[in-house]
Every structure is written in structure tokens, then in C-alpha cells.
Amino acid sequence: MTALLTAVLAIGALAGCTSSQTGGNPTPAPTTGGEQTSSQPTNDGSDSGLSITKYTSAPCTILKADQVTTLGSVREAAPGTGLLGPNCVWSGKDPIKNSRYTVHVTAGQDFEKQVNEVKGDAVFNDKKIDGVRVISTDRLDGLVTCLASVQISKTDSVTIQVNVASDEQATKKACAEGERVAQLIIGNLKG
What value, to the nearest 5°, has the Cα angle with vertex 19 and ends 143 and 14? Predict the structure, then answer.
């Protein structure tokens, strides 16, 4: 599973973002922009009552058309499959000016194991959004890249990967943006 999350973070780095990590015990970076870190889960959130079943075959429908417009100037949705399962990518029309969003719909992978693998990241937020557990994490500072994972059940989740474009870095922070998109998805899952 560590290789899985490492690969997802590497994909983010290849998308134009870089970060570095050295061996040993990481020292949390100072919090910025109101970000708070926590190493204690709010609870295991294992029974949210939500389901991702209809999105595993159609991950690009997890956001409504009007919600996609809130992402900014992005290209048409591109469905695919990655290490976390089916996904949908909304790439910025101009990678320097427009951020990139990838939403992974993950079924059958132990959520708590995924959480344990990223607890040592410099940014690690474990909280509830609209009553659903959401983990936000980044190895560096959560400003340019971030993963926000919504726990659907013990084995199902939705992970939003945000890569903020250079021109938007002054106004858009990756973890805050990932949590905003997570809240949209939670609303959609609740119906």
C-alpha cells in the first residue's frame, strides 16, 4: 500500500509539482494558511451510509456539470484507471494558469491502512466534513499538491488529488481546495 500512495504522489509530481522527502522521522512543517494537523483520527468513520457503487464504472459523473465549472478553466473530463481504481481527470486548459483535479473512486482497499501510511506526512488533517471523515495529506506543505480522501466505508473511499497551477498558487491552496471538492462529492453522495 505504501507503494500505492507513493505512486499517486509521484503522479502529482510528474504533473508539474515537486516535493522532496528524506528518510527518518519526518518533522511536521509549520502550519500555514490556517491548516491544522492532527495525528488522532476523529473516529474511524467506517459507516457513512454512503455508496460509490454507481461511480466505479463512471467516475466522471461524481461531480455535476455546475460543480465542474467551480474547478476553473479545465479540459473535458478524462476517465481512466490508476492504482487507486477508476478515476477522472480534469486537467487545466493551460497547465501554468489552471489547476488539475483527479478524483479516484476506490473500492475494496483498507482505508485505515491508507491513513496509517500518511500519518507522518508534513500535512495531515483528519476531520469530518458534513459528518463524513476526510483525511487531507501532503508530504510538503499542502499548498501546491494535496490528497483529500473521503471515507465511504472501511474499504471504500473517494480521493481528490489537487495540483495547483503556478498562476493560481497565490489564491488557491491545494488542501483547502481538495476539502472543498470533497464537500461537493459528499453532498452528491448524500443525494
Answer: 100
Coil, helix or strand for 53?
helix
Helices 111-118, 2-14: inter-axial angle, 10-degree rounding: 60
The helices-and-strands tally (H runs, E runs) of the chain is: 4, 7
Spatial contact of 26 and 140, defined as CB atoms under 8 Å apart: no
- Percent of the chain beyond pLDDT 70? 75
CA-wise closest residue to 115 among 176, 185, 46: 46
Q: What is the mean pLDDT of residues 135-151?
A: 97
Query: pTM value?
Result: 0.78
Phi, psi of 127 (to 5 degrees): -150, 180
CA distance linking residue 182 with residue 132, whole number of Å: 10
